[in-house]
Design a protein that fits this description.
5-stranded antiparallel sheet; single chain; alpha+beta; about 25% helix; elongated
């Protein structure tokens, strides 16, 4: 993987504060259990943001032309997430060299928490 991380309650709670998404299922353990959940769980945009950061650290924010993600498996405290990408195609459109990339965030059980695609415009090398 490009990057991996074990998600902690602290990651989830910090994201709740930063995002302003104060749904109790993301921060209130007693509430989560009262509605039948085993615990709080991460807002999908938390690991979506992590994937965005991994992509832009790798390719540069200026190169991202298109980016989309789809949420899958729930991310719980203690899950280990692996962030991977694969080049699916390359093409030239005018002066632009474009690369299509598939992206995946999977947990320790191989379940996809996120699948996504990006198109990157890369500089022409002399």
């Amino acid at each position: 993987p490009w990057f991996s991380i074990q998600v902690t309650r602290t990651h989830i709670i910090k994201y709740v504060g930063v995002s302003g998404d104060f749904q109790p299922i993301h921060h209130d353990e007693a509430f989560a259990k009262s509605i039948g959940l085993p615990s709080i769980f991460a807002n999908g945009m938390m690991h979506g943001g992590m994937l965005t950061r991994v992509l832009t650290d790798w390719a540069g924010v200026e190169s991202v032309q298109r980016f989309k993600i789809r949420f899958g498996a729930v991310v719980w405290p203690g899950d280990t997430l692996a962030f991977t990408g694969r080049v699916e195609g390359k093409r030239i459109e005018g002066e632009n060299h474009l690369v299509d990339v598939s992206l995946t965030v999977t947990n320790q059980n191989g379940e996809q928490a996120i699948s996504g695609q990006a198109t990157l415009r890369l500089p022409v090398r002399a």
